[in-house]
């Protein structure tokens, strides 16, 4: 109970920053994504520091690479620069391998491999958030991304509340013993119900049917993302990815589900809307 107040305060502040950041202006949206991505990358490096040494030069390279990749995708989505500029992204992915030629530390394969993993796990999903906030590649509508974030939070909150009160059957005991099938079903029901409210209340794009399908994507891939991070933390023998949010852990702990949701939501939006 003593952790309840700092947990509530940090959760409220976090929620306000995210909500304000993603809906009011595209540049504010970009700034929030850049901050979230940078902190998440640093937390990922901290998580994996027990199996890989990160020299300062490599830490800086990963951060600069993320900034470059996201800004290119953001400017292409805004039609500020040509889509041909996206071709620099594969070139950036090879930089950690080149840097290893001049690094005398052991395990020259682990660092680049983890760099590519962090790119796929953190950087690319955040870049795909551009396609959700700019669905027609011109007009900014941050409410689309906010709606997906809200659906993710609703699923997480009600899965926890229902699972902790009524959960009896483990969902994936080997990876996360506390998650239950009852909690998963409860979170799914509230997520689907919320998709109808979001369509009615928020000025989002897409149809009501689209938001039902996006809610299903949140339910399935959000759960998978949560389980994947639990698997990584169990393997690395750590409880939280960081401590930036008192009572909640790190940003990776808050965005683990969203990182898995964003690619599949973007694919659905590109193909079906």
Give a written overview of the molecule.
The protein has ten helices and two strands. It is mainly alpha-helical and 273 residues long. The chain has one domain. A hairpin with a 3-residue loop joins β1 and β2 (176-180). α1 crosses α2, α3 runs parallel beside α6 and α8 crosses α9 (208-236). The model has no long low-confidence stretch (mean pLDDT 86).
Q: First CA to last CA: what distance?
A: 45 Å
**From the helix content, strand content and strand pairing, which structural class follows?**
mainly alpha
Radius of gyration: 19 Å
State the share of residues found in helices, binned by percent.
over 70%
Average of per-residue pLDDT values: 86
Shape: globular
Quick description:
The protein is mainly alpha-helical and 273 residues long.
């Amino acid at each position: 109970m003593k952790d309840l107040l700092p947990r509530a305060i940090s959760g409220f502040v976090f929620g306000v920053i995210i909500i304000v950041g993603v809906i009011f202006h595209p540049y504010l949206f970009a700034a929030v994504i850049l901050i979230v991505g940078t902190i998440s990358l640093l937390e990922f490096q901290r998580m994996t520091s027990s199996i890989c040494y990160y020299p300062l030069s490599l830490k800086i390279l990963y951060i600069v690479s993320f900034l470059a990749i996201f800004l290119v995708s953001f400017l292409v989505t805004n039609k500020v620069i040509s889509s041909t500029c996206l071709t620099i992204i594969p070139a950036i992915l090879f930089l950690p391998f080149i840097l290893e030629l001049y690094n005398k530390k052991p395990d020259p394969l682990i660092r680049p491999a983890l760099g590519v993993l962090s790119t796929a796990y953190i950087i690319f999903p955040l870049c795909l958030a551009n396609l959700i906030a700019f669905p027609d590649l011109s007009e900014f509508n941050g409410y689309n991304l906010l709606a997906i974030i809200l659906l993710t939070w609703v699923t997480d909150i009600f899965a926890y509340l229902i699972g902790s009160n009524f959960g009896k059957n483990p969902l994936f005991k080997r990876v996360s013993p506390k998650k239950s099938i009852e909690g998963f079903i409860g979170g799914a029901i509230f997520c689907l119900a919320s998709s109808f409210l979001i369509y009615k209340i928020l000025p989002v794009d897409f149809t009501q049917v689209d938001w039902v399908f996006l809610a299903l994507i949140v339910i399935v891939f959000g759960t998978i993302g949560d389980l994947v991070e639990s698997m990584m933390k169990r393997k690395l023998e750590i409880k939280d990815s960081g401590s930036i949010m008192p009572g909640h852990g790190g940003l990776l702990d808050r965005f683990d589900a969203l990182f898995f949701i964003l690619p599949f939501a973007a694919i659905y939006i590109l193909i079906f809307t």
